[in-house]
Write a structure and sequence with these properties.
Elements (H helix, E strand, L loop, with lengths): L1 H33 L3 H27 L6 H27 L1 H4 L11 H25 L7 H29 L9 H19 L3 H16 L13
Length: 234
């Protein structure tokens, strides 16, 4: 009888343990499925950045061909860059990802990516200055002054020329290395932190609303129809 109780106790304990582990696993998988990992979150935000870079290119083309520009649309696009990319997206990178490769270690040599993060930080600073100038020039009373338009076009070209390789390096060299430098728990905390920060600064469904907002700009400029970019062999 005593042996039977012991066996039943062992089986019961095993069942409870297995159930707890199974529940934890299911809960973890559900959470991972619903939440966007921090690196993926940053990459999809690069998608918004890329679409605005195309808007910048279109306005630059209009200036070069002496077409009228929608300066308020351009200013709105630059404000998205300032508020969402510079003051939110880049701050997350600078505060939580770059330090992973910059913190002191017992090794004599610095992490290979520390030089890259240094360049990325300096480009963030340069980008903020250019964005402020784009907003300033796009909202001047004499926005259509030839000299102002010339400098505006130069700012747009410079910004695009810097940020395309900038984000490409982050996506292909920096972000893929993040998981190697944090524990599973730390990665989960970053996921929650990024999501909470976005909701706190911009409200619910901020990303979806921004995508819609940028799409409306693309429609106004006639660059929304993606099929028009299909290449044809010659």
């Amino acid at each position: 009888m005593q042996k039977s109780n012991i066996v039943i106790g062992i089986l019961l304990a095993s069942t409870i343990t297995f159930g707890a582990l199974y529940y934890r696993r299911v809960t973890f998988m559900k959470t991972c499925w619903q939440e966007v990992p921090p690196t993926e979150d940053l990459m999809r935000e690069h998608g918004i950045l890329n679409r605005i870079l195309r808007i910048y290119e279109k306005v630059e083309e209009q200036i070069a061909t002496k077409q009228p520009i929608n300066n308020m649309l351009l200013a709105d696009a630059a404000i998205i860059i300032r508020d969402f990319i510079h003051n939110y997206h880049e701050k997350l990178e600078e505060n939580y990802l770059f330090p992973l490769f910059e913190k002191p270690t017992h090794q004599k040599e610095a992490h290979p990516l520390s030089r890259l993060t240094g360049i990325l930080r300096s480009q963030h600073a340069a980008g903020r200055l250019v964005t402020d100038m784009i907003i300033y020039r796009a909202t001047l009373p004499n926005v259509n002054d030839p000299e102002n338009l010339k400098k505006l076009a130069e700012d747009l070209k410079g910004f695009v020329g810097m940020y395309r390789p900038h984000e490409n390096r982050e996506d292909t060299e920096l972000f893929p290395e993040v998981r190697k430098h944090v524990t599973e728990g730390e990665f989960e905390r970053l996921t929650d932190l990024f999501e909470d920060t976005e909701h706190e600064k911009f409200g619910k469904d901020a990303y979806e609303k921004l995508v819609h907002r940028v799409a409306e700009m693309e429609k106004a400029l006639g660059i929304f129809n993606i099929s028009e970019y299909t290449a044809h062999a010659v």
